[in-house]
């Protein structure tokens, strides 16, 4: 049995996506998968080094790893009318946010690329700090950052943390692009694996 490393984040949508594989509920056709749970920025970085056989990554990151990895046709994450959100302890306008320190979940995340597009500025022209996605609420509430760029289940729970939504970048993207969804994440497989095997996997 061939063993393959499979990276994905511990957030609920990835847990749902990979549940059947993790629990051996589907025919794995002679493969054994070692599930590696890490935050998406770490997975993006590991993909740049070609460390994992299969991994979830940000669509933004795929541009940096397409020489090593092929994009799989299933398992994508799309923001259809919603997406990464900018949250704060009080409502800020776009102009105000551009002058605030923003906690972001990683420079290679699709959320961070969408933020730059929404602000109309490259990352060198605004202040931000990278923190794990599950620490953004704490970072904003402690005052270390004034605004947080949230992904995953944080988009559903930010109000429980006493925060307000300043902007939904997925909704903004749809308004700017005739209702098209915002591409956020996908699954990739390393090209060191033969093409016929990749198709089976």
Structure report:
There is one protein chain. The protein is an alpha/beta fold. The chain has 2 domains: about 1-80 and about 180-200, D-Maltodextrin-Binding Protein, domain 2; about 85-175, D-Maltodextrin-Binding Protein, domain 2. About 30% of the residues lie in helices and about 25% in strands. The protein contains 9 helices and 11 strands. It has helices at about 10-20, 40-50, 60-65, 95, 110-120, 135-140, 155, 170-175, 195-200; strands spanning about 1-10, 30-35, 55-60, 70, 75-80, 85-90, 100-105, 130, 145-150, 165-170, 180-190. Strands 1, 2, 3, 4, 5 and 11 form a 6-stranded mixed sheet that branches. Strands 8-7-9-6-10 form a 5-stranded mixed sheet. Strand 1 (about 1-10), helix 1 and strand 2 form a beta-alpha-beta unit. Helix 5 packs across helix 8. The protein starts with a strand and ends with a helix. The relative contact order is 0.20. The model has no long low-confidence stretch (mean pLDDT about 90).
Features:
single chain; 201 residues; alpha/beta; D-Maltodextrin-Binding Protein, domain 2; 2 domains; 6-stranded mixed sheet; 5-stranded mixed sheet; 9 helices; 32% helix; elongated; MqnD
């Amino acid at each position: 049995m061939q063993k393959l490393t499979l990276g994905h984040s511990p957030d609920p949508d990835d847990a749902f996506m990979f549940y059947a594989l993790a629990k051996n509920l589907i025919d794995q056709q002679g493969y054994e998968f070692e599930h590696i749970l890490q935050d998406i920025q770490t997975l993006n970085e590991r993909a740049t080094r070609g460390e994992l056989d299969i991994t979830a990554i940000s669509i933004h990151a795929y541009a940096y790893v397409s020489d090593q990895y092929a994009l799989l046709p299933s398992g994508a994450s799309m923001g259809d009318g919603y997406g990464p959100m900018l949250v704060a302890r009080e409502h800020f306008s776009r102009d105000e946010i551009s002058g605030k320190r923003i906690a972001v979940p990683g420079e290679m995340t699709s959320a961070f690329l969408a933020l730059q597009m929404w602000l109309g500025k490259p990352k060198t022209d605004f202040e931000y700090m990278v923190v794990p996605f599950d620490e953004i609420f704490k970072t904003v509430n402690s005052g270390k950052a004034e605004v947080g760029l949230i992904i995953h289940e944080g988009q559903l729970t930010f109000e429980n943390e006493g925060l307000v939504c300043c902007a939904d970048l997925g909704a903004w993207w749809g308004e700017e692009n005739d209702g098209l969804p915002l591409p956020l994440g996908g699954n990739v497989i390393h090209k060191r694996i033969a093409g016929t095997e990749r198709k089976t996997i």
